[in-house]
Batch of 4 targets.
Target 1
Amino acid sequence: MTAPVLSGCEPLVAEGSNLGVLVLHGFTGSPASMRSLAEGFAARGYSVEMPLLPGHGTDLADMIPTRWADWYGEADAALGRLFARCERVAVVGLSMGGGLSLALAEHHSEIAALGLVNPMCQPLVAELREGIDALLESGLEYFDSIGSDIAKPDVSELGYPGTPLEAAKSLSFAMETVHADLSNIVAPTLVLTSRQDHVVPPDTAAAIVERVSGPVRQVLLENSYHVATMDFDQPLVESEIFAHIAEHLGANS
């Protein structure tokens, strides 16, 4: 039995028009980091699904046994729910949510647009993978948190205080496939990249810009760290994403 969902980490479902938006949060994070965007889409009349990914938003112990297949499975199911009631669907994601967005677009060419904020798309370097293996061999299940990388004072994404090691390995292995298959993506893609990011190296976005087959536009964020959706650049992030989705998915009248 999992722990109760923490206040502020609840998923969001909005019934709107026949235009849908899937909104995905990051690794060890929660829907809190994407709530303003999700609510903004709902206020604009879109149908919205923002799932709470398995193992997240409750207690760190709940995430330790979860893997990429669990997170991707829930994201894919939410996408399916939107396609069941919408004619066109876009996907917006932060960090691992961006990696999930890329993976979905690699398998679903019908996705109309992607909006990505500091997305993951590359595996961990060998030294980090070896470090994780050494920690696991020593009996540890998690290490220090990578969450709430935010320049703005006193702001938290309501993430976990630790990073589950086996789950991180699973994410890294999945990114190998996501990175290899970027050319399968044809959806118009917006990538927002923080110049200072202590979780995903800013040059990660270069692979997306160079390899995605559809049109790609990158916007650099000067004043935010990794969780830019809650940081100083939040207004810019939201205005860029809302405009991009309206352009390529359609705007509600």
Target 2
Amino acid sequence: MYHFFSEHENIHDTYIDIKGSDVNHIKNVLRFQVGDKLLISSGDNVDYTCHITQISEDYIRADIDSVDECGKELPSKIYLFQGLPKADKMELVIQKAVELGVHEVIPVAMSRSVVKLDAKKAEAKVKRWNAIAESAAKQSKRSIIPKVSEVLSFKEAVFKAAECDVKLLPYECAEGMKKTKEIVENIQPGQSIAIFIGPEGGFDCKELELASKADCQIITLGKRILRTETAGMMVLSVLMYHLECESC
């Protein structure tokens, strides 16, 4: 079943209107007809199974058949603070992070980030990254569209993460997989989680010091060195498994 999102003002007691670019996609790409079924999400973890009753130039109207108020979101909000990687790796990171349940992706310009974005380039990149997040949310049938924020400095990122209950920073020189296991197992559903991932060059000493002072827990992900685009996915996968098992 194809998945779409609709604004709150377009969701009514018995029907939902889909507007914007999705109208053309439904009409002319998917070639849906009256009676075809859709999954529509409100963006706040409520899903609606619907069938199309009207197709016009400006909107698609679908009657509500059933409502799932539990949604498909993890019981904890996970914030991925991703050090800016080279080339188009950020697009892959965002796509897979959304599939794995991230709540928000925060690009971070770190000391060892090779990529340097001026304000104009950063704005264009963030717009594209949010489009990728929306596409991945539809594909993976998320109940919300995770946001990709504006690019922050490391200091700004640490300040933003201060609101989270748990703060994790995987570091290649850290030791003790037992400690990592204990930290993950102590995370409870409902706690907010920040994950800091360094760029290709890793974290520098000042960043590690700043993170430690802000109560980030420095953890290891094992004996192997993971690429920047792999490390975040590994942590998200472990957290997704742990949180969904705990909330069953």
Target 3
Amino acid sequence: MTRRELRENTFILLFHKEFHEIDEMEEQFNLFMEEYNDIQSEAFRQMSEKDRHFIHDRVFDIMPKLKDIDEAINSVAEGWSTGRMGRVDLTILRLAYYEIKYDDDVPEAVAINEAVELAKKFGGETSPAFINGILAKVV
């Protein structure tokens, strides 16, 4: 699986957090993997055990940091708070912030670009510009 595909699947699973309690997320991960398996797509055939572990570890490393991540986003999001943001945009921002601040393997510019690409795919019409603007203030 490419790094972009890993990021996209991480985003999707992290988005589940918006609808479930943290203690339900292990079950959500298992359901996500079952659903992914049922799709029988080319991407699934390429998902290795290593890829599954990467997605799991990434999501479960981000979740305990959500309060700190949200505080950091709130500190730069003039006129916005995480409580007012759309769930898709917020999840993208959380993932990108995590990559910028906690993952030394992802350059800041790559994290921002990938977040904008996720926003184009999953967000609304203004999401890419919104995501880019917030993340530009983070770095």
Target 4
Amino acid sequence: MTRIPTVNILGVPMHCVTMDEAVASVADFIAADSFHLVITLGVEMVMNAQRDARFLAVARKASLLTPDTIGVVWAARRKGHKVNRVAGIEMLEHLAERGAREGWRFFLLGGKPGIAEEASQALVKRYPGLVVAGTSDGYFKEDAEVILKIRAARADVLLAAMGSPRQETWTFDNGDALGVKVAIGVGGSFDVLAGRSVRAPALMRRFGLEWLYRLYREPSRVGRMLALPHFALKILLSG
């Protein structure tokens, strides 16, 4: 992978990548003979890392951490880095498009029963030739059966939508056993792909207001949104 500038966001490293660089990096990982974890980094993750030593350790060992939300982009820009948002679901779509051309095999893990399969069907319809080698929901209690299913699928890329930090720590802990080249935490992307959830309008996304739209659609997220002002204050106080 071409050396990419890294910025420290409250102790969590983040790569200052463009979308093209992120996709190219994943392609390099797939060509390599080892496991790589990709984290789509957002404000909630950074704040969680302040109190979750295990997640922080995993984040520091990840091969690529992309700027997923406007909050981390703002924090990086304050430190003088030229960064634009690389939204996780958009990176997923770019990877699916390239994967359809290059024959990459994908496995979708996570979501409620049936959601991963619906997301898979939507991706295959949108990107003809895409190989989805398997799917599984995220409501499993025993790891062994799911690990064997993923390994048997001979997937190159594991898309894990199990919520953070579980999707990152679980894939990292089981990386060698899974047999995949790349694991990427994609949060609620399967719900969007399956049509169960709607992204903010393009204009709101352009101005970094996707968080406000999500709060409007899901008022129950208000507690989680308290991480935003706390994060902003910590960044301002850190200089």
